[in-house]
Design a protein that fits this description.
Rossmann fold, 5-stranded parallel beta sheet, Lysophospholipase L1-like esterase, SGNH_hydro, Ester_Hydrolysis_Enzymes
Length: 209
């Protein structure tokens, strides 16, 4: 049960757009970070997470944004790992205005997000670290997840949207076997203990907005 302490999120509607880390239908037995936050704060979670998606993958976050409700208080976008791994579009460069690159698609999405929710508390969360020996450090284009994290941070900063860097600041040690076996057995998706482990960092970030 939540409560005793009152949070800024208490009684508020929190919309989350994301991938499998957020999607309740992906490993439905797993208790997700937003479940722990909901318990603690009493907020209403409006979950628009969909496994396998991102800013450039099918279905894109922009396509999903077209369907999200207006009656919300907080909007958080948590993704990017599928854009990196699937490599549907090249990374591109900071300042791209075309939908043909990740940088460009990201900028287009964030501008649309602001256009739809100009008076709401917006935020972006970077991808979590990931490690699978059969994948290695690079995607099919020779790009790293670190580059995608930087793209998200740079573009969100340009748009004035707060970012939580869970890639570097999440305390997630994906190359440590003990950490993986306890919190992220497949090297990508946290289990319930993993979500419990890092949910406080996201909660503190959202509360700081």
């Amino acid at each position: 049960m939540f409560r005793k302490h009152r949070y800024n999120l208490t009684g508020k509607k929190w919309l989350i757009i994301g991938d499998s880390i957020t999607d309740q239908k992906h490993s439905p037995q797993t208790k997700k970070y937003h479940d722990y936050i909901k318990e603690r704060t009493g907020c209403t979670v409006i979950n628009y997470g969909l496994s396998g998606t991102g800013y450039t993958t099918e279905e894109t976050f922009l396509e999903r944004l077209m369907r999200t409700p207006l009656d919300v208080d907080y909007v958080t976008v948590f993704g990017g790992t599928n854009d990196f791994r699937l490599g549907k579009k090249p990374l591109g460069e900071f300042g791209d205005a075309t939908n043909d690159t990740f940088y460009g698609a990201l900028d287009i999405f964030l501008q649309a997000l602001i256009q739809k929710y100009p008076t709401k508390q917006l935020s972006v969360i970077t991808p979590l670290p990931r490690w699978r020996e059969n994948e290695g450090e690079f995607n099919s284009r020779g790009e790293t997840l670190d580059q995608y994290v930087e793209a998200i941070k740079e573009t969100a900063a340009l748009c004035g949207i707060p970012v939580k860097d869970m890639y570097r600041e999440g305390g997630i040690y994906v190359k440590n076997p003990d950490f993986l076996s306890n919190f992220m057995p497949d090297g990508l998706h946290p289990n319930s203990k993993g979500h419990q482990y890092f949910h406080q960092k996201i909660l503190s970030f959202i509360e700081s907005l």
